[in-house]
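This part of the workshop introduces the protein records we will be handling. To make this concrete, we reproduce a full record directly below.
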Amino acid sequence: MSKHVFKRAGFLAAAIGAAGLLSAGVASAHVTANVYGPQPAKGGYGSIFFRVPNEEKDAGTIKVEITVKPEYALSSVRAKPLPGWKAEVVKSKLPAPVTTDSGTQITEAVTKVSWTAEPGTKIAAGSTEFQEFQISAGKLPTNVDAIEFPATQTYENGKVVEWNQPTPASGEEPEHPAPSVKLAEKSGDGHGGGHGADTKATSEDSHAASSSSDSTARWLGGAGLVVGALGLGVGAGATLRARRATAGASTKSSNTEGTE
């Protein structure tokens, strides 16, 4: 092949890569549900972050609302305080009681969580800013592999965008996908997120740190004894030399006096 063919192939690959990045950027510019750390487990509790980017050129985002499906029966949902935003958690009576794995019947559950910007606060107009809104929720359902949270984004110019379209089985992303989080299989501790592993790791780290500190202390103690012994040796040597010098001076003096 000629050099021109390689150059053309290189330009084509670069163009395809740039197009891919641009399309990824457009596709990712929507409200998403994210998890930092271990994935929440079925039947446990989890901390979820809703990442909300601003998309309106001349208007900022002033309200975000998350809908919690009644069939999830999330009896405990807490919103983390966010400066400049007022959070509200709404509980509603369920159309029909939901029975948990332990046999408990839940008749009321959280159905909405919203954040409203206080005066002077918003996600700025344009496409350079986003905000994250966090909740802690549980117990998570055990009969689904993922949970969806349809979201509503309200702009200061009155425009409302619904992010509520489920992702089909084919995996092709819709225009306005609903934020969703995959659930890990149910864990033994009932909380999800691998807390037991974290505790074990912390314990092992602490033990290692303790052993290291103990070894260091012993090494320093031994070094101190060696230095002390050396000091005593030097002191004893100096004392012995001083005594010898004094004895020599006394002998010389005696011999001088006898000669006179």
Summary: The helical segments are 3-27, 195-259. The CA atoms of residues 225 and 231 lie 10 Å apart. Residues 195-259 form the longest helix (65 residues). The first strand starts at residue 32 and ends at 34.
